[in-house]
Write a structure and sequence with these properties.
The chain is mainly α. It folds into two domains: 15-169, no CATH class; 171-326, Four Helix Bundle (Hemerythrin (Met), subunit A) (Up-down Bundle), CATH 1.20.120. Helices cover 68% and strands 0% of the residues. The chain has eleven helices and no strands. It has helices at 15-40, 66-95, 99-124, 137-140, 142-163, 165-169, 176-201, 227-255, 261-286, 291-315, 317-320. The longest helix is centred in the first third of the chain and has 30 residues, at 66-95. The radius of gyration is 22 Å and the shape is globular.
């Protein structure tokens, strides 16, 4: 006689776990902000050793020297992120009934560990020359370090959303147009931010020194091309694509009658972030990459990705939480 499938275990909201997951998602932006500031002022090699800074967790002068403060604060915030990731993975493993959420916790811990290793090797291998390249091996490692940071932001948003009361108790029934557009926009943003990482770490931020045109005589195309110019131009082209794609997502969410109030609010916030990001991008050129403007541009870019990914994740909530037979 066939046995009936076991009933699906409904997830229960755990307020303390949800608050800690939300804290982790907020803390990652502290880490991103400090990393962006460190890169913007060229302080990545303020200390030549790792994991300690000048052989200490409290090196002399780090609170008064801007470069030392930026780099050491980034290291301290990274170490804190590691402790948070360990606690979150263990807490999810012990308290969470949903396998996908437990797996995300362990994946997050893996990414944090890999990020720490890459960050350390970036320092230790800074002097190792790679034949045929102008950057050393340590300098090259800045690129995967920056790309992984964007993926980790998305992962923490996914965990925090999955632990929230709204996610657990309220299904989302938005239409396929919202789901598809959100996926496309998230993919486009990841491509754009990857280009931005390559651009920042190849000193291409001013490869095209005028904006919105590519020359002082209002030409659309640069007169001369090299790798840095191509990166800068690709970044601008992708920005134009996103200027079309993101407002479309906002419109689709706002018009979908099944979209909850929180998704509508996030869509409105996304449009504001897009406008602010365009303004900051222009200011980078007009201020010749002033450190505070460049740092703000990186932070707003990360917030734009986080908001778009949250909309995507929320739009697919019912498929992610679909009951499966035991």
């Amino acid at each position: 006689m066939a046995t009936a499938p076991a009933p699906h275990r409904t997830a229960t909201h755990k307020p303390a776990l949800a608050m800690f997951a939300a804290f982790a998602a907020v803390w990652v932006f502290v880490l991103v902000a400090l990393g962006a500031f460190t890169t913007s002022i060229g302080a990545g090699m303020a200390f030549l050793d790792w994991p300690l800074s000048n052989g200490s967790v409290n090196p002399d002068g780090w609170l008064t020297d801007v470069a030392m403060f930026a780099e050491h604060s980034h290291r301290l915030s990274g170490a804190t992120m590691g402790l948070i990731a360990i606690a979150l993975a263990l807490w999810l493993h012990r308290a969470e009934s949903r396998p996908w959420l437990r797996r995300l916790g362990w994946l997050g811990l893996l990414i944090v560990g890999l990020q720490g290793l890459i960050g350390g090797q970036r320092v230790m291998l800074d002097a190792l020359h790679v034949p045929g390249f102008t950057m050393s091996l340590g300098q090259m490692l800045r690129v995967p370090h920056g790309v992984l940071a964007q993926l980790y932001i998305c992962l923490l948003i996914a965990i925090a959303a999955g632990c929230s009361k709204v996610w657990i108790e309220h299904p989302v029934n938005v239409g396929p147009r919202v789901r598809r557009t959100a996926l496309v926009c998230t993919a486009l943003l990841l491509v754009q931010l990857t280009i931005a990482v390559f651009m920042r770490h190849n000193a291409a931020g001013l490869a095209i020194p005028t904006f919105p045109y590519s020359t002082p005589t209002n030409d659309l195309l640069p007169p001369h091309w090299d790798f840095r110019v191509a990166l800068q131009f690709a970044h601008r082209v992708m920005a134009l694509v996103l200027v079309v794609a993101l407002p479309l997502l906002v419109i689709f969410v706002r018009r979908d009658r099944a979209a909850p109030l929180l998704m509508r609010a996030a869509a409105s916030a996304l449009f504001s972030l897009l406008v602010l990001q365009i303004f900051l991008g222009a200011q980078i050129i007009w201020t010749f990459r002033r450190a505070d403007v460049t740092t703000a541009h990186v932070i707003v870019g990360a917030l734009t990705l986080a908001t778009t990914f949250w909309l995507t994740w929320a739009a697919h909530r019912n498929a992610i939480e679909q009951p499966t037979a035991a």
